[in-house]
Design goal:
alpha/beta; Rossmann fold; six-stranded parallel sheet; about 45% helix; globular
Length: about 425
């Protein structure tokens, strides 16, 4: 099929950062292997993009120096350079709208002249930041595709971890529906890509143009394989990777593993840092497992992958996680993920490739994870089977190239080249198959 001429709105695309900027770059660069991609970015990201030497046809730079200075000041002074603050999303709204307005002014002539086949906005990922571009292209001449969108996870009650981190602004999330461009964004978009079953249900009224594509992906080089399983008597190597903030619930992982850690049947490595580190270290002392738990702090990405390659299971009981990129990397590394059936991790992990527990309460979840760990410690055949299936799934479905292929199907449908792809969250597909059996 012929290459598409794709105009990608990726304001925060940056290969030298982490989280959303890196996710955006990886997705856009994978699409650029398949299509003629023109990437539209903020000026602050241009030098990093040039150093990456990605195969973009061209890079369009949007320069808004005064707005950039205002945002930088607010991020530094108001939010203390903390990306994990919920209120930061609301703060971004006027800047996101301004970026697209300037992008439209700069590129309108070329769009109307037929230089592009489709516009794809891949950031911001959150659905509460609407897009003026859908309104600008309401009369054509080309379709507008939005996503993948994520976010909107409820704040479950009864969790001390969430009480520590929830902000007042979370109660105002639905206000976005009355913001300028909110209605037109989703009504006028030709296709809406979402990255979670939660967001899929939120936009169910647009099912005729709704598609699921995971937020994260992995580089194929991570799928290196690993040697055979360990001896039955060897300690179970457990790992947690992530920011040590309340919602990641590393405390549940340590509590669940405590019985195995006490009798030397397991060792636990905690990779990451954050405000909860001191509390977690005190928890290991109170449980009598401090000698079996190693806190590594932040490590470089290559070393994190090496640690995953050496681990048997990733214990990741985050009670509110949108993407869960470390789960993708664990699967690719042959590390069996143990997650909560909620948010991004719950959408990706199935019983064939990992283990997940329902979102109930802290005590029940810790007991369920403990049961899983005890089973994996004695049933190495199960551990090895999950490991092999997970690595195969990661190679076939979770690489950036695989994600670009799926997105390509959506873009080709949007421009009228192929029938509509059937892309439903795997979690929903699994639930349907379970109910029909």
């Amino acid at each position: 099929m012929n290459r598409l001429r794709v105009l990608i709105l990726g304001s925060e695309c940056n290969p030298e950062q982490v989280s959303i900027p890196l996710v955006t770059f990886s997705h856009a660069a994978a699409l650029a292997k398949l299509h003629d991609v023109t990437l539209v970015v903020r000026s602050a990201n241009v030098e990093s993009l040039h150093r990456a030497n990605a195969p973009f046809r061209s890079i369009e730079v949007i320069r808004t120096p005064q707005l950039d200075r205002i945002f930088a000041w607010g991020f530094r002074r108001i939010f203390k350079s903390n990306f994990d603050r919920q209120a930061l999303t609301a703060f971004r709204y006027p800047f996101a709208v301004a970026f697209e307005w300037y992008a439209w002014r700069q590129l309108r002539g070329r769009i109307l002249a037929g230089e592009f086949d489709v516009v794809l906005r891949i950031v911001p990922l959150t659905a509460v930041l609407p897009s003026p571009f859908a309104f600008f292209l309401r009369n054509g001449p080309i379709p507008f595709v939005l996503g993948p969108l994520n976010g909107g996870l409820p704040w479950p009650s009864g969790f001390s971890q969430l009480k520590k981190q929830r902000e007042w602004v979370s109660g105002l999330r639905k206000v976005y529906r009355i913001l300028p461009f909110a209605r037109s964004t989703f009504r006028l978009a030709s296709a809406i890509i979402v990255a979670s079953s939660q967001t899929y249900s939120e936009f169910a009224r647009f099912s005729d143009k709704l598609f699921f594509v995971p937020e994260n992906g992995i580089d194929p080089s991570i799928c290196r394989g690993r040697s055979g399983g360990k001896d039955a008597g060897a300690p179970l190597e457990l790992i947690f990777v992530g920011a040590l903030v309340p919602r990641k619930a590393c405390d549940l992982a340590i509590r669940a593993a405590a019985p195995l850690l006490r009798n030397n049947s397991a060792r636990f490595t905690v990779v990451g840092d954050g405000p909860e580190r001191k509390n977690l270290q005190e928890l290991t002392i109170s449980l009598g497992v401090e000698r079996a738990v190693t806190f590594c702090g932040w490590l470089g990405h290559p070393e994190v992958l090496d640690r995953l390659q050496s681990a048997d299971a990733l214990v990741f009981p985050s009670v509110r996680d949108f993407g869960g990129g470390v789960v993708f990397e664990a699967l690719a590394s042959g590390t069996v993920p143990i997650v909560v059936d909620f948010g991004g991790p719950g959408d990706i992990v199935t019983p064939e490739i990992g283990c997940k527990v329902p979102l109930t309460d802290e005590t029940d979840m810790a007991m369920r994870i403990q049961t899983i760990l005890l089973e994996l410690a004695v049933n190495r055949d199960l551990l090895n089977r999950l490991r092999v299936e997970g690595m195969a799934y990661a190679r076939e479905r979770l690489t950036w190239d695989a994600k670009a292929e799926i997105t390509t199907r959506i873009l080709n449908w949007a421009v009228g080249r192929i029938p509509k792809p059937d892309l439903v969250p795997p979690k929903l597909l699994y639930m349907k198959s379970e109910s029909s059996s």
